[in-house]
Design brief:
Blueprint lengths: L3 H18 L3 E2 H8 L6 H19 L8 E2 L9 H9 L10 H18 L3
Parallel strand pairs: 1-2
Amino acid sequence: MLDPQAARAALRGNLRLVAGLGVTVTYHQAARGLGLGPPHVIHTVSQLLEGLMDEDAAAGVPFVAALVVSRARGGLPALGFFETAARLGRFKGDPFGEEAIAYHAAELALATAYHAPA
């Protein structure tokens, strides 16, 4: 396994390519892109994504993590995405309701436009 900083950099690079395609990926697809296998695959990806969110917040740019969604949440990111966005002062609202859907749609559009390779 890569060290966390290298793993975040690799994940960011993969997600920039995803942004360029204008699509999203699941947590499992993100894990496969890094060559991660069991155990704790989703937990590992979630931790890496939260680290990317910290970096993006510090840089004042859209969350590249918005490109990773959960099949279990109908195309929304996992709860940790909204909790981290709230902790970073970028989301206020119900992570299970319409506010979450609207927030993610807006952040996804911004992230896709911003993070796609030039």
